[in-house]
Design a protein that fits this description.
Elements lengths: L1 E6 L2 H10 L3 E4 L12 H10 L4 E4 L11 H16 L4 E4 L10 H10 L6 E3 L12 H8 L3 E4 L10 H14 L2 E4 L8 H6 L4 E4 L2 E3 L6 H4 L9 E3 L1 H12 L2
Parallel strand pairs: 1-2, 1-8, 2-3, 3-4, 4-5, 5-6, 6-7
Antiparallel strand pairs: 9-10
C-alpha cells in the first residue's frame, strides 16, 4: 500500500513519515478542505522529510469553478512551488455546470516547468455531465484521482468505490480513496484492490486558546495534527491478512 497523509504543518509531515507514510499531501487550512501551501512551508517540509511531497493547488475554499483571475493565481502558485521542490500537485477545476474544466486543467499541466504527477482531488465527487470522467482525466494527464466515491466519506460510498476501481483498471488511472479512511474501513478498501490510500491520521490538539477570537471552524478553536500511532496502526491493519 502507498499511504498518502494530508498535512498543513511541518511537524505533521515529520510524524507522518516516522509512522510509515509514503507520500505527503501538503496544504494549508485543512479545516477548509485544504488550500495552497506557502513556499516557506514547502521548503521547511522538504528539509525535514525524504518522502515525496505533493502540493495542493486551491486558492480559496468553496466550489471548484474558478474565474480566469483565480486560475492565473493558481498557475503562478504552482510554478513557484514547482521551482521550490514540489514532487507533484493535487488540484481540480470544474466548469459552472460541474463538468470538468478541460481547458484550464490542460493549461495547468502545460504551465509546469517540469513534468510532475498530478492528482485530481475531491472535485471529482462533484462532476456531472461526463459519461467517463476517469478517461477524460487520464487523457488530460492526471495520474490518479482522490475520491470518497461521491458520498460524504468512504464508508458511505463503498459500492461506488468498488465500481470506480473496476473502471480504473480499464482506463489505467489510479483511484485513491480518501475522506474518512480509518481502521474500521481499511480492510474493505484492501479487499477491493486499492493500492493507494489517502488519510489525515490526525487528532485534535488540546490548545483552543484562539478559537473564539478567530472564529475557528474547529471545535473550541483546536487544531489537528498527525498522530504517528494512527499512521502505524492504519498500515498495520492494511497489511494484516
Amino acid at each position: 500500500m502507498i499511504l498518502e497523509v494530508c498535512v498543513d504543518d511541518a511537524e505533521s509531515a515529520i510524524l507522518a513519515e516516522k509512522g510509515g507514510a509514503n507520500r505527503i499531501e501538503l496544504c494549508s487550512a485543512l479545516e477548509l478542505g485544504g488550500l495552497t501551501p506557502s513556499v516557506g512551508l514547502l521548503q521547511e517540509v522538504k528539509k525535514r522529510v525524504n518522502i515525496p511531497v505533493f502540493c495542493m493547488i486551491r486558492c480559496r475554499s468553496g466550489d471548484f469553478s474558478y474565474s480566469s483571475y483565480e486560475i492565473s493565481t493558481m498557475l503562478f502558485d504552482a510554478k513557484l512551488l514547482s521551482d521550490n521542490g514540489a514532487d507533484g500537485f493535487v488540484f481540480g477545476f470544474l466548469n459552472e455546470d460541474q463538468s470538468i474544466d478541460i481547458n484550464s486543467c490542460y493549461a495547468f499541466m502545460q504551465s509546469l516547468s517540469r513534468e510532475l504527477p498530478c492528482t485530481f482531488h475531491r472535485a471529482f465527487d462533484f462532476i456531472s455531465k461526463d459519461t467517463n470522467p476517469l478517461k477524460t482525466l487520464k487523457d488530460i494527464g492526471f495520474s490518479r484521482i482522490l475520491t470518497t466515491g461521491g458520498g460524504p466519506n468512504v464508508s458511505s460510498s463503498l459500492n461506488e468505490l468498488k465500481i470506480l476501481q473496476a473502471q480504473s483498471q480499464e482506463v489505467a488511472i489510479t483511484v485513491m480513496p480518501g475522506g474518512g479512511v480509518n481502521e474500521a474501513n481499511i480492510n474493505s478498501l484492501r479487499e477491493m484492490g486499492f493500492n493507494e490510500i489517502h488519510s489525515s491520521c490526525s487528532v485534535y490538539t488540546s490548545d483552543g486558546t484562539y478559537g473564539t477570537l478567530f472564529n475557528s471552524p474547529l471545535p473550541n478553536g483546536k487544531r489537528k495534527i498527525v498522530c504517528r500511532k494512527k499512521v502505524e496502526d492504519l498500515i498495520s491493519k492494511f497489511n494484516a491478512k
